[in-house]
Amino acid sequence: MKVSIFDVAKKSGLSVVTVSRVLNGAGSVREKNRQKVLEVMKELDYRPSAAARSLARGKTGIIGLIMTTMQDSFFDEIVNEINGILAEQGYFLAVAVTKSIRQEESHYLIQEDRVDGIILLSPIEEDHYIIEMKRRNIPYVLIDNQKPENDTYSITVNNYKGGYTAAKHLIELGHTSIAHLSGSEMFRSTSERRNGFMEALQEAGLRPFELVSGEYSAEFGYQTARRWIEEQLLPGAVFAGDDYIAIGVINAFMEAGIRVPDEVSVIGYDDQQVASLLRPLLTTIRQPADRIGAAATEVLLKRIDGSMKRAANLRIDPELVLRQSTGVAEQQSRQEHT
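RE: above sequence
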């Protein structure tokens, strides 16, 4: 197994930054620590990677990643992919979980002498971040950014196609009464998924059973489904804006004795880990976290080493994952539940 800068840091008992400074020949490192690092490098037969060698040009060997939450298995998969690739290249990933550029975690990372580059994962205040990173000349890449005008260096998912695919799947199963529950309007993906959904319905000459906006949460899905149950007016199928909304919908139906998918089909979005753990297993639209993380890392590293001469926006297609929560529509009307 190839020895990395992290192995040297662990063996020497020093930080990755200190090891990087030794490789960089920085005069700020204590001679005792310098000798310790050099001895460990010799002992482990460590040969600096291209990324580590770039420290000689004043690099830190650290990449910053700013995200708004860690309570999301989809984000977790992206971060794991990024971390794995960076580790192979001799980089250390520093993660800040924050909702604002003004918070200390973000402020610390957005320093030109702290990191070699920054990845923003589904940022909320992306304009402020971009202004500051450009001012400090920090290479960056956005994942799931909210504004099309910031697509210059970004990795996004074709959420329009995802919404279209979800609706098309339900229509092909014979469903004509289809509801859509969407998440927060602050996210670009929300409207894109809804627009794709509506396009598929319009092509089939259908109108939605209901369009409901709320939050990306199981509680929103649960309360909406409870309302349908109390009104005794059910859709034949539901396209949930994410898997958590879908789980809430299914929980409400099952609590009321309404069978999924026998009576109502439900499809989610994201393919969170929980989608393949609950029963019925959730049919969903998968966002390929591995490809997203790999693409973002590639773009950023190319920006850092100067090999990327043109702006790059990569839009990745989502994938339909068929499981147990969707089925063929019954012949009788689904619009009244007795």
